[in-house]
Amino acid sequence: MNTPAVSVRELVKYFGDLRVFDCISFDVDQSSLTTIVGFSGCGKTTLLNVLAGIEPLTSGSAEVGSGKDRTARLGYVFQTPRLLPWLTIEQNLMFIRPDDVDEVTHRQRSLHYLEMVGLKGVEHKFPYQLSGGMQQRAGLARALCIEPAVLLMDEPFSHLDEITAAGMREEMLRIWQETRRTILFVTHDIQEAIELGDRLIMLDYHGHIFDDIQIPLPRPRSFTDPAFMDIYANVMRSLLRMQAERAEELQVTPVK
Amino acid sequence: MSLALDTPAMPARPPWNQRIAQNLKDLVFNRRWLAFVLFLAVWQAFSLRMAGVGLVPSPQKTISTIWEVLANGLFFEHLADSMVRLLAGFLLAMLLGVIVGVLMGSRPFWDEFFKDLVILGLSLPGLIYALLSVVIFGVKLIAPVMAILLASYPFIAVNIREGVRALDKDLLDMTRAYKVGRWRVVRQVILPALLPFILAAIRIGFTIAWKASVLTEVFGASSGVGYMIRISFQLFAVRGILAWSLLFGGVMLLIEYGILLPAERYFARWRPKVKQVI
Predict the structure, then answer these.
(1) Domain ranges of chain B
(2) Range of A65's domain?
(3) What's the pLDDT tens digit per position in B82-111?
(4) Which ipTM score applies to this complex?
(5) What are B234-249's pLDDT values in tens digits?
(6) Dihedral of alpha carbons B152, B156, B161, B162, sign
(7) Whether residue A170 sits in one domain with residue A58
(8) Across the interface, do B170 and A76 touch by the CB < 8 Å criterion?
(9) Cross-strand partners of A133
């Protein structure tokens, strides 16, 4: 429990001239569920991409697992399912088999996690034969089947209707409690963040961490619970303050 | 025209012999034959009208010539020669076209580099390559091969370039997040995504290739279908020209229905069926 599951140190990231992260640092505890919120374009997805090794970082470090263990596995659930359309669901899960796992074991795990996300019986279907929600579940099963040290989730339910999304959140919590995977969950939905997370990290426009809030509420959580509403109001106040500061800055910046 | 997606449960695949039987049935009981019958009727009427001149042979006479060259094996001899040239040239064109297409699709430098060459290649008629190759290389195998290569590769290159440009970056990012090996990515992500474009490239490249190969044979070869067409022409035997052209066309249709279409159908089985509404 002592070594953090994710460790970000003085991370700086530029896209050309655009500064996305200006020296941010944070740790994420093992088996915790941390949400990352912020306005659109503040770099939430980029943070996950840097952790996943899709995006190179400019300086600093972003490590998953303990310092030496760089082979720690990562599961990534994207905004859209990103399944290979020409492979069946089972083949899609087999496709990402890590080299150190043999085929039989990986197939067993694939089927196990497909069952866990409620997709038993559709292993041999192609993605187009499933609904959007089912495809997203398949994406979740794919992330789980490599038994990752950390699960990165990038607004995985934002493309689903609210009822489906609510069901998926509930199931995700159940799966999290069963598997105790560390989860880093990006969302722009404050209510979703408070409902799910142990902790909420808020990014601002300048690539800093604006706020870092612990959410010690018992689960299942309800929006109508006064404690929930308190936290919600707090987070909203933070966001409004962030926006007010932003507006002020934009006013003093001379218009070209 | 509007399209509707039709996504029924996948029916079980019938065994291969039933599928072949079905394909044959589709081929025989097809309204396309109606077009052939109409074509024959017009031809017949035309040849009767022109009977006095004697330059347009009737379908019966042409068919008897077809039968003749089929029966005495002459057709297969020359077809084999033509096919060797065609395949050699086409495979080289495919190789060059894929290399150029991949470079153009993935590297801006090479896109600029090849752009004008490819546009020129697309627009120059195959006749020019055929004439040039015959003048330069004479009757050697390299003449038709060069003509086919030059005429055909630009069409392959542009198709492949579009395919490479259309590769889904999100899927490639996914493979990086899961640290999937390069070879597996090429085989399971890039090739399947390029397949429709490769098939389109094969289809158009092959058509251009066989036109170029027949042309070169007409001008400079001592065997092959194009050579026989020239001989017929020199003998003023119109029915020979028609017979050899029709036979070669028939072979191309066989390749289309026997190889290209089934391949396309096989590789598209993961797609939702698109039903044409209007």
Answers:
(1) 73-268
(2) 1-72+149-158+166-231
(3) 999 999 999 999 999 999 999 999 999 999
(4) 0.88
(5) 888 888 899 999 998 8
(6) positive
(7) yes
(8) no
(9) none
Inter-chain contact A87–B270, Cβ cutoff 8 Å? yes
- A67 CB near a chain B CB, below 8 Å? no
Give B73-268's CATH code, choosing from 1.10.357.20, 1.10.3720.10, 3.40.50.11740, 3.40.50.280: 1.10.3720.10
Q: Do B177 and A80 touch (CB under 8 A)?
A: no
Q: Scan residues 132-171 of B and list those with Cβ closer than 8 Å to A.
A: 170-171
Contacts of B176 in chain A (CB under 8 A): 52-54
CA distance A224 to B268: 50
Q: Are residues A55 and A116 in the same domain?
A: no
| pLDDT at B11 (0 to 100) | 59
Q: Which helix (H) or strand (E) holds B67?
A: helix B59-71
Tell me the mean pLDDT in the region A209-222.
Answer: 90
What CATH number did the domain enclosing A37 receive?
3.40.50.300
With beta carbons under 8 A apart, name residues in chain A contacting B272: 128
Interface test with B, best of A45, A79, A96 (most B CBs within 10 A): A96
What residue type is A242 in one-letter code?
A: M
Exposure pattern of B147-179 as b/e (b: 16+ CB <10 Å)?
A: bbbbbbbbbbbbbbbbbbeeeeeebbbbbebbe
Give A-chain residues touching B170 at CB under 8 angstroms: 78, 80, 82
Same structural domain, A11 and A107? no
Orientation angle between helical segments B74-106 and B238-255, nearest 10 degrees: 50
Q: Which residue of A has its CA nearest to B270?
A: A86
Overall average pLDDT of the A181-188 stretch:
93
Please say whether the beta carbons of A45 and A184 come within 8 A.
Answer: no
Query: Considering only alpha carbons, which residue of chain A is nearest residue B10?
Result: A125
Beta carbons within 8 Å of B81's beta carbon, 6+ residues apart: B221, B223, B224
Instruction: Identify the closest residue of chain B to A73 by CA–CA distance.
Output: B178
Kindly state whether residues A53 and A154 are assigned to the same domain. yes
DSSP assignment letter at A1: -
pTM, whole model, 2 decimals? Answer: 0.79
DSSP string, B88-127: HHHHHHHHHHHHHHHHHHH-HHHHHHHHHHHHHHHHS-HH
Cα distance between residue B5 and residue A251, in whole Å: 51
Residue A3 sits in the same domain as residue A62 = yes
Q: What is the pLDDT of residues B168-180, one digit of tens each?
A: 999 999 999 999 9
Does residue B255 sit in helix, strand or coil?
A: helix
As given in the structure block, the two tokens for residue B231 are: 């001989």
pLDDT classification of A135: cutoffs 50, 70, 90: very high
